[in-house]
Each structure stands twice: as C-alpha cells, then as structure tokens.
Amino acid sequence: MTTTSSPSVLRRLRSLVPRRADVSFDEALRVSELQASCLIDIVGGPDRIDATAISELPHVRVVSETIAVSGMSLWTGHHWLIAIKSDNSLAHQRFTLLHQFKHIVDHGHAATLYRGSPVATSTAQAERAADYFAGCVLVPKRELEALWDGGLRQPQMLAAHFGVSVDAMLVRLGQVKLNAANDRLPHVRCAHPVRSAFTGPTRSRVARSPRCPA
Description:
Number of strands: 4
Distance between the termini: 17 Å
Shape: globular
Number of helices: 9
Helix content: 40-55%
Mean pLDDT: 84
Strand order of the largest sheet: 1-3-2-4
Order of helices and strands: HHHEEEHHHHHHE
Strand content: 5-15%
Structural class: alpha+beta
Radius of gyration: 16 Å
C-alpha cells in the first residue's frame, strides 16, 4: 500500500458526504458505495485491504483480541483503534475490519447520514451502512457482475473468490439484485467501548462526485 497520511485518506472519504442536513438513508448508502470505491482506488485493489494495510495509515492501529463481539472501534486520545475478535475466521475478520473502519470514516458525520426513521434507529442505520461499505469494498459490484455474467453463480465459489463468508456473499448478491437474498445483519459486529487491557481509558465512540477526490 502506498504510504498516505491518515488525515488525508479520511478527509478524502469524508469529503464525499453531502454538505446539507436532509440526507436520506438511501443517499447515505450511495455515499458508502462511493467511499468504498475511493478506498479501493487509494489502496490499489480490494485484495490488498487487510489489517496490515489499514494499520499502515498513521494514527490507526488494528489489534486482534479476545473480545465478546466481532469488533469495536474508538479514539484513544492518540490514535484510532480497531479491535477484531481473534478467534473469528479470516473472512469474518476482514469484513469486520472494514465495518469498523467505516465507523471511523463516519466520525463527525453520523448525525447527517443517519437520522433514523419509523422503522430503523439512527444506530441501526449506521450499522447497516457499515456492513454495506464493507461489502462494497470486499466484493466490488462490477467484478461480481462480470463473474455472474460469466457463469460463476454458486455463492460458495463466489465467496471463496472474494475471500468473504457465504453469508456476506448472499447479502451482497441481494444488494446488487443478483438473487433474492435479504440485506440483513447476520452478526453483531459492534460494541460500545469498554475499559480493557488494550484500550485503557476510552475517550469517544466511533460509531456528490462519483470520483475519489484528489
């Protein structure tokens, strides 16, 4: 991964958030997709995005820990910290990593993007958008559609190709309307920050153009 300052990467992704207060949730999901494409452009491909690549960003640290949920993210006062459950599968860990990174990207913009609705709280919307972002990064729409059109349509084989779980692949297929899967959240991926051996005192919860800004 090309060394790029963390503030610059986060600024580029956050600059895709509309500068107005009336952002619908559908638009927030489109922002997530644009941010995913931008991150892929920065890193050089979804296959290069892993804990090492994210940790190479200054002021971002990724740790593998024995925790009760799949992952969590927070600002320690010195850097952004992403903790991933150590005994989950590699595919699950990669998805959780991107889910948590999206929460960091959303920091300062969550109130604009996720206003809640009669059917979903703002927190539920933020969680869904984080899952959507992770799916867009790890399973880019164009590549998935090309494989599908080429005859590769078994979810298990597609999951193996992209390095994601079969559950995640089924959800992604539904998102791009290649099957009837529901866009659901099969796992709890987040928790409120807690005082633990790796965090110390916690400080805070992290929860237009189609081109990646230069």
